[in-house]
Write a structure and sequence with these properties.
- The structure is a single chain.
- The chain is mostly beta strands and about 180 residues long.
- It contains 1 helix and 15 strands, in the order ββββββββαβββββββ.
Amino acid sequence: MPAANDIRKGQVIKFNGEAHLVMETQHRTPGNLRAFVQVKMRNLRYGKSLDQRFNSTDTIEVLPTEKKTLEFSYADRDSFAFIDPNTFETVELTANLIGDAKNYLTANGKVDVLFVNDSPLTIELPSAVELKIIESADGIRGDTASNVQKPAKLETGMMINVPLFIKAGEIIRVNTTDGSYLGRA
């Protein structure tokens, strides 16, 4: 097992029996004390972040990981089916694992899935996706004072605010981090 000095950003380590994704590491050597490694990590099951200090000589278990790009196929109640475009293998992920990402999934949309020991742990969306507007109220003529917005329903069922000139049937770009309107596609 590698020492704490060998931990790098992006690795998945086992800490307190749980898988944690390393987000930041800093090696510190204060004045007359022993060296230590300060690690900022996120629990992959619960999504909770924590800071942990390890002695530089501590051994830490690094879990083998694999990141695959999968295409969304369909949703069925509490499971979401994805297809590996290389092997055409179907992978089903639970609704708990998907979380709010379901609002951005469309047919053939690509996502990155992190696998640890051949079991899926997290899903990463692209920074922006293109979605079609299903319904939106018409803008009122002359109502263009300053950045006036109206609600619109997207093909995934999510509601967002868009500018008045956007109509039903148009395809727009949506930011996946905060669900905001970015522009027309």
